[in-house]
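Example record used in the benchmark description.
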Amino acid sequence: MLKGIKSFVIIFLLLIGLEATAQKTTVWIVRHAEKDTSFANRLNPDLTVVGMQRAKDLAAYLQKENIVKIFSTDTKRTKQTATYFNVPIEIYNPKSLNSVLDFINLDKQDKSVLIVGHSNTVLETIEALGGTRPVAQLSDDDYDYLFKVVLADGKPTQVNIFHFGQFHRGGNATMK
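Model output (structure tokens):
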């Protein structure tokens, strides 16, 4: 009986040790904050005042996440959304996520990265990372979604959805 308990304890401790050494990368994915739409033909708009506040809210929400790198498309609005982080920003092409995947696979250390994209690239990026879309689509006024994609060795990709900053359809500020 005692031998069986010792074996169970040893196996349990080994499993805990393996779990503790399993490496994971947390990828936070967000659509850029509110953009200036006052000029319908403007190709590369800045963020609005509300959008700049949302960018600050994003940095506050993720301040304890130890983001080591940010990937942004090459537009003003995505780079401005990432402006309140003191982290290097690398420009990426959302149609080719090679630079993002290379960085994730560069070493197997635990790390967190942020990807700032667009309403028509965020969900596709989640799928490219092996996750399932947590919502069917993003509309042009969906600005408060924040997606957490956890990539862990030997485990299925986990996708969680959060809201941050001012609720995008009005109402009270939320940070769930």
